[in-house]
Amino acid sequence: MADPARARKIADRIKVIVAEYLEFRLKDERLGFVTITDARVTGDLQHASVFYTVFGSDEERKATAEVLEANRGRIRSFVGKQIGIRLTPSLEFIADALPEGAAHLEDLVAQTRARDEELARAAANAKHAGEPDPYKKPIDRTASDAAGEPAADSASDSVSDSASDSAADEVGIDVEAR
Fold first, then answer.
1. How far is Cα 32 from Cα 53, in angstroms, rounded to an integer?
2. Overall pTM > 0.70
């Protein structure tokens, strides 16, 4: 098994060699605007997968796939001469799904932006549920005493006074004299 770093270097070299061959050596009118996007080599350096994209219609993509398949042996021979390793890896051309994936992501981003705009419009006219200030504030005792309302502590004072009165009665002390 080869070193993974060596396999990556060979894959990068195969990518460049195949791109050069398609650009300068392969003379076929059916070949569309091809871009070699990636190449991957197995760990034993026996098989290489070359990923490509074609700019154009479905017919141009199909014609380019046929050209690559028909010239796979010539491309492999050229790669073997240029790469300089003992065994030339077999080539497999795979149409890269990158453009379709990118188009799908662009559609999703457009839908998300439309939903965000709808939510922003709805939020601009929205009001909070309940009171405008939901937090409780401390009671101002001086204001409640001035209004004639009994303060919150006065009820507890009266309860404690009645408790002390009943205790004083049991002992026999005059409460009024206090």
1. 10
2. no
